[in-house]
């Protein structure tokens, strides 16, 4: 299976910061102290989150469907060795990744790009050891829907977010249209679909985070949603 990110690997690498490690305080707080832990980065792309975690002492394995993004990740690993292992694989199955093999798993800003949410979350749960932790982040499903926009109040000049088609789940071609480095399109799902699918996979939510954004409209409503928790003991 070929990834649509193969066509934009160079541009995407440059857009997210070629060779850089992730700088995200919410993600840092949710992942916590990872020193000495074995962590799987699902849909790792060009390795930005993997480099962040490895830089804090984790033993990291990154898995991605895009061979071209993995080439970039391995190039960055050669330039700055952090002991990261990169594997070609589908996030929906994680075939070839051993069951009960990781202390933690992360999927950063990728679940909305994956067609089979149920498969991806069950695969994450499968590779976690009993009691293992997980952190995922997505564009906020309540405010990034197939029909959204922004309007300006002509009186106070404030910017407001409009939302529509929230209950219309499935593929849509809106996100990324303004970024040449991103394939256009993602899979919209309701918040309840995400929560219920996590629960069905045995991934118990401990925390939800909705960080304040850095633009007027994203200071009014959240642009991103972060979810942290653990694999159910049952």
Structure keywords:
24% helix, seven-stranded mixed beta sheet, 6 helices, alpha/beta, Rossmann fold, two-stranded antiparallel ribbon, 11 strands, 234 residues, 29% strand
CATH superfamily: Vaccinia Virus protein VP39
Number of helices: 6
Q: Summarize the helix and strand pattern as letters.
A: HHEHEHEEHEEEEEHEE
Helix content: 10-25%
Q: Going across the major beta sheet, what is the strand order? A: 3-2-1-4-5-11-10
- Give the helix/strand class: alpha/beta
**Tell me, what's the shape?**
globular
Number of domains: 1
- The poorly predicted ranges are none
- Average pLDDT value? 93
Proportion in β-strands = 25-35%
**Major sheet, described briefly?**
7 strands, mixed
Mind telling me the CATH class? Alpha Beta
CATH fold assignment: Rossmann fold
Overview of this protein structure:
The strands form 3 sheets. The protein has a 7-stranded mixed β-sheet with strand order 3-2-1-4-5-11-10, with helices on both faces. Strands 6-7 form a two-stranded antiparallel ribbon. The relative contact order is 0.15. β6 and β7 form a beta hairpin. α5 packs parallel to α6. The protein has one domain: Rossmann fold (3-Layer(aba) Sandwich). The longest helix has 13 residues. The chain has 6 helices and 11 strands. It is globular, with a radius of gyration of 18 Å. It is of the alpha/beta class.
Helix-strand layout with pairing:
Elements: H1 9-16, H2 25-31, E1 38-42, H3 48-55, E2 59-64, H4 67-79, E3 85-88, E4 102-108, H5 117-127, E5 128-139, E6 147-152, E7 159-164, E8 170-172, E9 186-188, H6 191-200, E10 203-209, E11 224-231
Parallel strand pairs: 1-2, 1-4, 2-3, 4-5
Antiparallel strand pairs: 5-11, 6-7, 8-9, 10-11
């Amino acid at each position: 299976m070929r990834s649509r990110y193969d066509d934009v690997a160079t541009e995407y690498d440059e857009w997210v910061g070629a060779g850089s490690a992730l700088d995200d305080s919410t993600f840092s707080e949710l992942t916590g102290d990872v020193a000495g832990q074995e962590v799987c980065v699902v849909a790792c792309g060009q390795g930005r989150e993997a480099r962040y975690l490895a830089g804090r002492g984790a033993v990291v394995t990154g898995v991605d469907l895009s061979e071209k993004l993995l080439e970039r990740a391995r190039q960055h690993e050669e330039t700055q060795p952090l002991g990261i292992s990169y594997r070609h694989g589908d996030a929906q199955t994680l075939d070839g990744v051993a069951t009960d093999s990781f202390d933690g798993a992360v999927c950063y800003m990728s679940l909305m790009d994956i067609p089979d949410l149920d498969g991806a979350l069950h695969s994450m749960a499968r590779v976690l050891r009993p009691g293992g932790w997980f952190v995922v982040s997505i564009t906020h499903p309540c405010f990034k829907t197939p029909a959204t926009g922004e309007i300006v109040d002509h009186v106070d000049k404030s910017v407001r977010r409009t939302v529509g088609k929230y209950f219309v789940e499935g593929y849509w071609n809106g996100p990324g249209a303004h970024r040449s480095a991103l394939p256009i399109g993602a899979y919209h799902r309701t918040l309840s679909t995400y929560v219920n699918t996590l629960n069905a996979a045995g991934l118990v939510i401990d925390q939800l985070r909705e960080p304040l954004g850095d633009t007027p409209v994203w200071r009014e409503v959240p642009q991103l949603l972060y979810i942290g928790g653990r694999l159910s003991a049952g």
